[in-house]
């Protein structure tokens, strides 16, 4: 089985065309050292020095032996082509040197220099230079590796210069200019590079530029070295200055004629199964139709993340519309994000289009500008389609755009190409993930409808694990086709922790999920790549710019620039202003990169900062929702975390609403990773919001996580707090026995800690639970609320005393002493207002209204109910709002206003139904009875329905 080794980049091995897992970087480096010295012995000391440098492990020799053993295992199956033998004091790797790219490079360069034919030499040089992928032995940072890279870079430059000389002798100066320009920038003092650049410029008709390039070289040499250019460059300068005829590369001018009217058909084959995309196809059709009618240039930019199906969409549409373009279809893959090869230079793409349009090589103009002008001339007035696939940026695209109406251009890119939209009038089309139904259709198209229908649950799981990404779904379907296993087995493989990207891997880099993602990732700047990796540590489902700054320890300005770069690269989506997300497969890939590139300490610190951000920000927001709340001291924050602050209650509530799903994920992540203090404190900060908005299932989930976390910490404050959170969720959902069990446990824990305030709060909670049990247990509530008042008084907690006084007033009202209820609740109001306890005020006004109702003061009751409603609506307390509306409806009916009662109860029912609260049945029954009375003409006699609901305090 053929084996290939690659060192001109990261250390890689391929067996039979399949990339082999060579282990972690140091292990790969051991193989790299042995391959560099192929067929020559390497001592263990040399291995240790070259792989570890000054950071040699304590048991270095044992480590080397272990690595070599693993490498033998990884490369088994290539016996006869590769042999690793132990020699005295070291090791010898026997291998065909032509299987190792660095040795193959040297062999090809040597042949090119001796072949004696420029055309053959060019082919050999291009083969050799094509073996380079990136920095040799990338990732290895020892002095030996650094020195080796310098030497190899020198060899590469020498080969490039020899290649350029041969190309210039063959008259390829125009094609060479972009690479010569880049090389001259990298080597500004190299006279040979300068000479090649000058000659290429001159032969392209740019004599003035060639002379200016010489003057620039002369100035740099004088400034930096105090020297003049050497005699060879000086002679070339003189020959260019005098336009010596021998320098010219003869070529005949090209005049377009009938022979140039070639009809190109360059579209690649269309994908076999394009599912969905109806809106995008309709948009492409509409752009073509509207622009054709107006006689304008048509440019459409198709954007989206890696693997989303941009090329499939563009090529499918192009085939569908090809009859509208009788003069032909041009296509080029610009390779904007291909790490294996350089992006296509626009000049090369223009040259390819000219070839397709029938321009003979001898008729090509010298300069890229002239070639681009000829291209535009040839497509002028022709109905032709130009598909520019995988563009890197607008600058790569602009030279390829036709200049007149009739030609239609479709550009695909992972970047949004905002410049093309703003400057060139391109119309953007964004390609999103498939819907679940479309994803199911894709699987059915590949696997057959019967197989998909037979395992619906497995299909749903596969779709979810593939994040509805077309590439991932296609690979999953391919795996199912190849194995023939039940879809449940594939779903289980995909769901296995950490294996999803492995299951979706192939031996084709162009269609392998990791590789496709890597093309965008490796194009990032280092700071943006770091941020992308750290975002993989965030639990999702999305993240704000402010939280991202905390995660990465960056300033808001720094993080906005990097988020913009990630968005342009298609690795992140700004789905709402200031909020960013990526699908789960990209999250997995980002987390993998973090595991590889960032130390455990860096990852731990980033997650700690993220949770610090949410805990501290949630505490601030909860303090505005509940001003009297006295939170415990938070966990010590990591340096660089950045909490948010809010101007008022409304902004705090909006933050909780926006971050709801993220905060739940953060609690789960903190619990799963053993950050127990973050877990229970974040749960506590969330509790009021979740309760008021009716998210009682979520309240139970975070409460249970908080109980387990606080128990592990044996936190004397956190444990009772957590039990109270769970109790509140049980109470709201009607599980009163469970609520009481947790509250009694909290009361016992507060008692053990001597926490009077906590005991008082828990007695209030117990009174609320008792109140839900019905009228017969109302007398049993008074001991709890009086005990709470005494405890608050003993701890000097004035607000607590007022809250307890409201509870005492409510208890008197339920016992029929409405006058005493008014006295207690009115007495509580000043302190509640002083401390801005709006929830307490709402309960007090609700109880006052309840008392007025039963004292026959119905107008006062209505007014007080509305005071309570205004307060609870400002709080965002959905259940309390419904509860008060329920009682207000009773008062309207008692006032002989059944229409107002009906409208009010209808509002209450809508909220209770939305919250899935059992009290909805009670309100629904009243509405039904009221409608029945109305239909029989007795609606105004419905006063018997006005028995008021129990006060919402309970």
UniProtKB/TrEMBL annotation:
Family: Belongs to the AfsR/DnrI/RedD regulatory family.
Start-end of DNA-binding region: 1-95
Pfam families registered for this protein in UniProt: BTAD (PF03704), TPR_12 (PF13424), Trans_reg_C (PF00486)
Name of the protein: Tetratricopeptide repeat protein
Superkingdom per UniProt: Bacteria
Keywords tagged on the record: DNA-binding, Transcription, Transcription regulation, Two-component regulatory system
Transcription regulation listed as a keyword: yes
Species in which this protein is naturally found: Actinacidiphila acididurans
Keyword ATP-binding: no
All copies of domain OmpR/PhoB-type, residue ranges: 1-95
């Amino acid at each position: 089985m053929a084996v290939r080794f690659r060192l001109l980049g990261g250390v890689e091995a391929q067996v039979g065309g399949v990339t082999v897992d060579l282990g972690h970087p140091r292990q790969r480096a051991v193989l790299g050292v042995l391959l560099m010295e192929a067929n020559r012995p390497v001592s263990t000391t040399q291995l240790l020095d070259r792989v570890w440098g000054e950071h040699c492990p304590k048991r270095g020799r044992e480590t080397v032996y272990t690595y070599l053993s693993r490498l033998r295992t990884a490369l088994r199956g290539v016996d006869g082509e590769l042999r690793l033998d132990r020699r005295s004091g070291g090791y010898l790797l026997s291998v065909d040197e032509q299987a190792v790219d660095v040795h193959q490079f040297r062999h090809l360069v040597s042949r090119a220099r001796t072949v004696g034919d420029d055309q053959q030499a060019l082919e050999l040089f291009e083969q050799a230079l094509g073996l380079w992928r990136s920095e040799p032995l990338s990732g290895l940072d020892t002095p030996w590796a650094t020195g080796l890279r310098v030497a190899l870079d020198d060899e590469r430059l020498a080969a490039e210069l020899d290649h350029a000389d041969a190309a210039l002798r063959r008259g390829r100066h125009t094609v060479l200019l972009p690479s010569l320009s880049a090389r001259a920038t990298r080597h500004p003092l190299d006279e040979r590079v300068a000479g090649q650049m000058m000659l290429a410029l001159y032969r392209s008709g740019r004599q003035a530029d060639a002379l200016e390039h010489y003057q620039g070289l002369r100035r740099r040499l004088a400034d930096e070295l105090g020297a003049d250019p050497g005699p060879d460059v000086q002679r070339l300068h003189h020959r260019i200055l005098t336009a010596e005829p021998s320098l010219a590369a003869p070529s005949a001018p090209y005049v377009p004629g009938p022979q140039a009217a070639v009809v190109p058909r360059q579209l690649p084959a269309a994908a076999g199964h394009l599912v969905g995309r109806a809106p995008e196809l309709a948009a492409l059709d509409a752009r073509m139709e509207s622009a054709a009618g107006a006689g304008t240039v048509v440019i459409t930019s198709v954007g989206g993340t890696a693997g989303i199906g941009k090329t499939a969409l563009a090529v499918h549409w192009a085939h569908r519309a090809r009859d509208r373009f009788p003069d032909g279809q041009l296509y080029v893959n610009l390779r904007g994000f291909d790490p294996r090869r350089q992006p296509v230079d626009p000049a090369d793409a223009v040259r390819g289009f000219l070839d397709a349009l029938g321009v003979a090589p001898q008729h090509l103009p010298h300069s890229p500008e002239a070639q681009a002008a000829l291209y535009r001339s040839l497509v002028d007035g022709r109905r032709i389609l130009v598909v520019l696939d995988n563009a890197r940026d607008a600058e790569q695209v602009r030279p390829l755009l036709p200049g007149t109406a009739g030609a239609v251009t479709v550009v695909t890119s992972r970047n949004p190409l905002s410049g093309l939209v703003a400057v060139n009038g391109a119309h953007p089309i964004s390609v999103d993930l498939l819907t679940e139904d479309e994803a199911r259709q894709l699987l059915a198209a590949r696997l057959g409808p019967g197989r998909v229908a037979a395992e619906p649950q497995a299909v749903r799981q596969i779709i979810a694990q593939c994040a509805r990404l077309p590439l991932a779904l296609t690979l999953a379907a391919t795996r199912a086709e190849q194995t023939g296993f039940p879809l449940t087995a594939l779903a289980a493989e995909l769901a296995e922790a950490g294996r999803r990207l492995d299951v979706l891997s192939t031996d084709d880099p162009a269609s392998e999920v990791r590789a496709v993602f890597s093309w965008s990732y490796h194009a990032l700047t280092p700071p943006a790549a770091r941020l992308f990796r750290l975002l993989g540590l965030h639990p999702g489902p999305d993240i704000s710019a402010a939280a991202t700054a905390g995660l990465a320890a960056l300033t808001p300005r720094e993080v906005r620039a990097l988020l913009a770069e990630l968005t342009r690269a298609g690795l992140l989506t700004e789905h709402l202003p200031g909020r960013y997300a990526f699908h789960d497969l990209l999250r997995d890939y980002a987390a993998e990169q973090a595991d590889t590139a960032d130390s455990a300490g860096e990852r731990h610190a980033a997650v700690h900062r993220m949770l610090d951000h949410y805990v501290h920000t949630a505490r601030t927001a909860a303090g505005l929702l509940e001003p009297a709340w006295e939170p415990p001291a938070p966990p010590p924050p990591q340096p660089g975390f950045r909490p948010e602050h809010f101007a008022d209650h409304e902004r705090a509530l909006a933050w909780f609403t926006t971050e709801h799903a993220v905060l739940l994920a953060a609690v789960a992540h903190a619990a799963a990773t053993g950050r127990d203090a973050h877990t229970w404190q974040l749960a506590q900060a969330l509790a009021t919001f979740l309760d008021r908005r009716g998210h009682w299932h979520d309240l139970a989930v975070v409460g249970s996580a908080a109980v387990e976390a606080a128990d592990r910490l044996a936190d004397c404050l956190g444990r009772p707090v957590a039990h109270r959170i769970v109790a509140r969720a049980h109470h709201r959902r009607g599980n009163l026995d469970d609520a009481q069990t947790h509250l009694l446990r909290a009361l016992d824990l507060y008692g053990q800690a001597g926490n009077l305030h906590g005991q008082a709060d828990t007695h209030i909670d117990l009174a609320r639970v008792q109140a839900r049990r019905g009228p017969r247990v109302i007398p049993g509530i008074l001991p709890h609320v009086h005990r709470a008042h005494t405890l608050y008084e003993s701890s000097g907690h004035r607000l607590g005393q007022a809250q307890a006084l409201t509870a005492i007033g409510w208890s008197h009202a339920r016992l029929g002493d409405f006058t005493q209820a008014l006295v207690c609740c009115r007495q509580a109001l000043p302190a509640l207002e002083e401390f801005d306890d709006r929830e307490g005020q709402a309960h007090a006004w609700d109880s006052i209204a309840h008392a007025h109702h039963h004292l026959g003061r119905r107008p006062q009751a209505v007014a007080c109910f509305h005071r309570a409603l205004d307060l609870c609506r400002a709080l965002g307390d959905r259940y309390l709002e419904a509860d008060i509306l329920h009682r207000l409806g009773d008062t309207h009916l008692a006032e002989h206003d059944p229409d107002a009662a009906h409208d009010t109860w209808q509002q209450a029912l809508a909220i209770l139904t939305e919250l899935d609260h059992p009290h909805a049945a009670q309100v629904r029954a009243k509405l039904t009875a009221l409608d029945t009375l109305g239909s029989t003409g007795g609606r105004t006699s419905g006063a018997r329905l006005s028995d008021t609901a129990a006060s919402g305090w309970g």
